[in-house]
Amino acid sequence: MAMPLRQTIKVATYLAEQKLRRREKFPLIVELEPLFACNLACEGCGKIQHPAGVLKQRMPVAQAVGAVLESGAPMVSIAGGEPLMHPQIDEIVNQLVAKRKYVFLCTNAMLMRKKMDKFTPSPYFAFAVHIDGLRERHDESVAKEGVFDEAVAAIKEAKRRGFRVTTNSTFFNTDTPQTIIEVLNYLNDDLQVDEMMISPAYAYEKAPDQEHFLGVEQTRELFRKTFADGNRRRWRLNHSPLFLDFLEGKADFACTAWAIPNYSLFGWQRPCYLMSDGYVPTYRQLIEETDWEKYGRGKDPRCANCMAHCGYEPTAVLATMGSLKESLRAARETVTSNRA
Asked: Radical SAM core domain spans which residues (predicted)?
């Protein structure tokens, strides 16, 4: 687990506080969407299919920051759309960092070098660059040539300037263990990014490409082969060991949708970042008025093949905190990765 030690301690302290307060539901990280507009049209994306009037909207800074503070989460992932298209994205980031929130700015990197001067390196801030494969594979997934090369150039420049840089990779049934190994080796060893996140793609109902999403058994086989030969221990993966066990079928969990709530232009989204069953104006309403029990594998058909980290990583983290053995295992891997 490649999470920096300072961040690990803060999150662990936060989790301990929730346990002492006997809170049953609480956020680990907020998925903040301050806009839906994007400068790419990825085949597997189901987040940008909105009317032109909605795509022109930008969330006010105070509203964005206020939502994160309302939830109390220690971390925030700023997504979209493409966040760097928001004219005040630097103000949103700066205000959240000032509140000591760990901020991950998700980006396809097309505007990253152009906008980099707006940001300041901080242990509380990281660019999270979306990379789905090496050049040919990535450019195909985003339906535009040259995106991979621009992303690589942006990552190198950000690292040169002292920014933390993480990556987020989504995999489909067109991927093989070898293609995944190749891209993660490149990110880990050649680009030397600080952390990498991985996830099987979720089958968005509105995604243009509906043919290449993975089923549960396909996902398990894919990652079991990918993680063979000690690869998962060598890569700086920003995941708990139990979540990686889950991906390759060594463990099974229920989804914990409430732990990574989504806030967008429409409000707090029910029930999660991936599914949209309506919106409520406050975080409290989201937690108290959502029928969480009706979601999950075996309950809602939309959840049948989902193994995405936004649903299952929180379950793995909570299971880790509830087990001395798993806590020691995670701590050992954190120390090892911070020495790498």
From this structure: 22-233
Domain spanning 5-339 has what CATH number?
A: 3.80.30.10
- Edge-to-edge strands, sheet with 102-107: 195-200, 164-171, 125-130, 102-107, 75-78, 29-32, 262-264, 267-271, 276-280
The per-residue DSSP string of 45-86 comes to --S----HHHHT----HHHHHHHHHHHT-SEEEE-SS-GGGS
| Calpha distance 137→327 (Å, rounded) | 37
Q: Against a cut of 0.85, is the pTM above it?
A: yes
198-241, pLDDT tens digit by residue?
999 876 666 555 566 788 999 999 999 999 988 888 999 999 99
pLDDT in tens, 13-42: 999 999 999 999 999 999 999 999 999 987
Paired strand residues for 285 = none
**Sequence-ordered alpha helix ranges (H) in 72-146:** 89-98, 112-115, 135-142
Looking up tokens 């690869």 gives: 231
CA 177 from chain center: how many Å? 21
Pairing type for strands 125-130 and 102-107 reads parallel
Decide: 104 and 166 in contact? Cβ < 8 Å: yes
| Nearest Cα to Cα of residue 202 among 15, 46, 23 | 46
CA angle 200, 86, 205 (to 5 degrees): 35
What are the structure tokens assigned to 42, written together? 């990825």
Peptide bond into 81 cis (omega under 30): yes
Average pLDDT of the segment spanning 274-279: 92
